[in-house]
Structures are given as C-alpha cells and as structure tokens.
Amino acid sequence: MNRLRPIYMDDDGVPLDDMEASEDRDDADLWFLPGPIEDEPDYLPPGPAPEAKESEVVDAWRAAEAGQAAQLARVAARLGILDERLRRGPAGWRQRLALIEAADLSWLTQDRIGLDRLSLYMGLRVSTATDDAQALYRIGWTVRRLTGGPAPLTLRSGVRDLATFLDRRDRPGQGERFEEAKAPSRVVEMAEREAFEDRVAGWLAIMDQAEDLHAVTRACMGFHLWHVAELSPVDDPLEAAVTAARVAIADLAPSESAPGAIFAPIAMGGGGGFRAIGDPSARLARWLNAMESATFAALRKLEEIEAWAAAAERTMAPLSGKTPPMLRDLFTSWPLVSVQMAEKLTGAHRATVQRNIDWMEVRGLIREVTGQGRYRMWRIVETRATEARSIPVRNDGLSADDLFEVVAARP
C-alpha cells in the first residue's frame, strides 16, 4: 500500500512545492546575472613564478659541471700550463696579458678602448679630447685588478672584502680610494644604495654554497648571478667579468716567490662566453669554449714574446749602456710603446730613447703602427718561428691539441 506524500500549504493556501518551482523558473530567466564562479573561464594573467631556491640553483650548476667534465679538465690543464709559464717569465708578461684582456673587455662594454689609448693612459695618464674619462677610469680599474690588488673571494670572504675589490668604499688605507669625480655615475649610484651590502651578502652566500664546484664553474655561475643580485647595472658586465676572471684561478697553487696567473683570460676568446642565454649547461659550455680559446691565445702571445726577446737580445748584443736592455724589457711588458712612455718608464733621455728605437726599427725588431706625428707607437715584430708555432687562423695543419702538446713539452 502506497503512502501519500503530505502536501504542505502556506498561510494563503498555496502549495509550497509550486512556489519553489516558480522561483526556479524566475531565476532561469535572469540571464544577465553571472554564472557560478567555477563555470567562468580564467581571464587573469598568470602570476609571477616562484623563485628557485638557492640550493636548486647550485644543484643546476653541479649538473652542468658533470655534463662538461671532459672539457672542464682540458681548460683546467691549459690554465695550469699558462700559470707555469707566467711563473717562469718576467712580471711584464702578466701586465701585457692584462692590457690585452682589458682592451677586449672594453669592446664588450661598448667603451671600445684600443691598446694604443689604453697604453698611453696607463703609462702616462694621457687622454685625448674625444676620450671618455669614465670609460678610461673603468678600464684602468680593470687593468689594476687583472694585475694585482685584493682578491674578490677568500676563505673567509665578507661584504667588505668584495667592496674593497670593487672600490665601493672611501676609507683611507682600505683599498683604493673611491673618487666620485672619476667614477661612472652608474657605479656611484649603485654604491650609494643602502641595500648594497645586503645584495653582496646574498651573492656571497650562494657562492659559499658552491665551494665544492671547480673554480672555473664557480666563476661562470658567479658571473651569471651577478646581475641577478643587482651588484652592477644590467648593461654593465665589466665588474662581473673581472671578478669571474679572478675567481676562475682560485684553485691554482699560490706562490709568493714566483707568482703566476692572476686572472683567467676570457675576453681574448671572444664575447660568446659572456652571453646570458640558455640554461646553466649551455652557459657553461660557452664559457669553457671561450676560456679555452682565450688560454690558447694567451699562450701564443707568450710564445711570441719569448721568441722576440731571444732574437732581440742577440741582435742588440753590440749595443752598450742601460737603455737597450730596458727598452727590450719594456717592449715585452707593453703591447704598444711610445717615446714618451719609454722616457718615463726607463728614466732615460728622450733623445737616447728615440735613437735606440730607431735602431731597433731599422733592424726589424719593432715596427710603427700609428703613422702619425705625435704619440707614435711601436710594437714588436713576430719572428717566423713564432708564427709557425701560433694557433692557426689559416689551414696550416696544426690543431689546438697539437699546440697543447708542444707547449706542455717545453721546459
């Protein structure tokens, strides 16, 4: 027996079920009202992606290093050869390589300071009316840091140590004096920000987490994280590049009696190593390629200097006095030399310097490269034996590995 459902009535005698159905029909007619939230499409732009943790960043570079282990070993071996050659050579070799590397870095930063202008500025503090004073100051700082000065990272590196390396302090007796009149306005602006020490502390913290990485990999990581930490303007990679060049040789054994390589050449191999495109693996691959080419170029230049110095010593043996050997050492230390530079750096009389330079030019040891009346500059002339040993830009049958074997076998 079916039981009848009771019908409930309101006070006016209208069934309640009929009222609910009528309300549902009325709601269906309200087409202009928004629908349920879960049925609407999401037109909002995506929010910012969560930042990667520091441990994840370092792990990505560890994986990149593991994938480039073979090439990293070759680069480390070549840096060791360069360090050994510099230990056995005069101090002028390091200065010469630093001047060439700084001039190449100036093209990376759009300053475009040539070797002639850079040599005049570093030797005589001479600049022309068209020279950019800020650009010369920046590249001069680059040369000083590539030839010496405080280390950017030590076993107990702190914020003040890196600030000293960057000349971001104005304290007597602590690093070089930071002169706002000479420094670029962008560098002054970055130095005056209150959060600079916090940014440096953050960059140093992540570099400390990567202590187990090879120095070359660590330098590459530090370069690409430099602008993430906002330690320099985005369009100014100079400070990051110089810091990375000094960090890359941290694994080389230090020796106070016979200092070797102070920096790892990078810009000599082209600007591809500084491109900030791709994942850590792609960036490290470009970095290693550039450093390998730059190290070969540096070794080739040392071969040229050594061969020229031996030939110059034999040719200049009949000359007497102190000026000829001093000029010979000067040409091995500077890529380009003028009479004014030689007069100041050797202390000899200008007429004596000019007479010896003319004698060397007639004998084919040096040649003029400027072709102008004032500030004429000379450079060494490569010997045929040196050119035959050079890394070929032509197809002469000598590969990079062959040159490595030749250099490694030299006493």
Automatic annotation (TrEMBL):
Biased segments, Acidic residues type: 9-25
Annotated segments matching region Disordered: 1-25
Tell me which InterPro entries the record gives.
HTH_DNA-bd
Query: Which residues belong to any copy of the HTH DNA binding domain?
Result: 325-380
Under what name is this protein listed? HTH DNA binding domain-containing protein
Name its species: Paracoccus shanxieyensis
Q: What is the lineage of its organism?
A: Bacteria, Pseudomonadati, Pseudomonadota, Alphaproteobacteria, Rhodobacterales
